[in-house]
Design goal:
The chain is α+β, with helices and mostly antiparallel strands. The protein has helices at 11-16, 25-43, 50-68, 86-99, 167-170, 185-191, and strands spanning 108-112, 115-119, 125-126, 132-137, 149-157, 163-166, 174-177, 199-204, 224-234, 236-241, 244-249. Helix content is 28%, strand content 26%. It is elongated. Residues 147-234 form the PPIase FKBP-type domain.
Length: 250
């Protein structure tokens, strides 16, 4: 049996000093054990041996060390950084676009979460709706009207400059009646004032873009860029033969 009465400090009174230390789980169990040992030592008056004295010294040293140098909670302090490091994100977007071999004067996109900033040359025009465009060739003639059919080529890009669609690769231009909600809102607004033979780059913001979701081609809301070449505009008339009716454009 180990006796603690001969220690230079009373263990029970020493446990009260633990109130000034951080109450870690190790210290609480240590204090409970020492109190139990002291209680047993009062009931057993056996003279301690030399080995027992060494054990008591080591226990006392452990108690003193744990209270004098308590373990402190550590908190990682991260280096402060700008949450919207525009320059870094801009250079990253430029690098990715170079890898995708984007055409000249292609706009850059600085994205931080859901916040996106469009960086484009001064010759781009921005409308109140958020649509941005640039004319390469103006074209001649009249602009399309609702009900007419527009025939055009286009190449679609995402923010990283990756090509997502192209009628040139398909080998045939697109044909669709204008003003029938058959086009993405931003696309229809972008070609509304184009003339046949005109070439334009349209930057469509997410609010004017296509719907997103698992049942659509687009998986997230982002800016889309389209290079459009308006080939021609055709008038359309409804034709009825018996019970059959269709629209003919020419």
């Amino acid at each position: 049996m180990i006796h603690l009465q001969s220690l230079p400090y009373n263990v029970a009174s020493f446990c009260s000093m633990l109130n000034y230390c951080i109450p870690t789980r190790r210290q609480i169990s240590c204090c409970q054990a020492s109190h139990s040992l002291e209680h047993n030592s009062e009931q057993n008056a056996v003279k301690p041996s030399s080995d027992e004295k060494n054990i008591k010294r080591r226990m006392l040293l452990s108690l003193v060390t744990s209270c004098s140098f308590p373990t402190l909670l550590s908190y990682g302090k991260a280096k402060g950084k700008n949450p919207y490091d525009e320059r870094r994100l801009l250079e990253q977007n430029k690098r990715i676009q170079r890898e995708n071999q984007v055409p000249d004067d292609f706009p850059n996109f600085v994205r931080e979460g859901f916040e996106v900033k469009v960086v484009a040359p001064e010759n781009y025009v921005k409308r109140d709706s958020g649509l941005i465009y640039k004319d390469f060739e103006v074209g001649k003639g009249d602009c399309p009207k609702a009900g007419q059919q527009v025939i055009f080529h286009y190449i679609g890009y995402n923010e990283s400059g990756r090509r997502i669609d192209s009628t040139y690769l398909q080998g045939a231009p697109a044909k669709i009646r204008f003003g029938t909600n058959g086009l993405v809102p931003g696309f229809e607004e972008g070609i509304r004032d184009m003339k046949p033979g005109g070439k334009r780059r349209i930057i469509i913001p997410p609010e004017l873009g296509p719907p997103v979701g698992p049942s659509t081609f687009f998986s997230s809301k982002q800016f889309e860029v389209f290079d459009v070449e308006l080939l021609s505009i055709q008038d359309c008339q409804r034709r009825t033969i018996g019970f059959y009716s269709d629209v003919v454009c020419s």
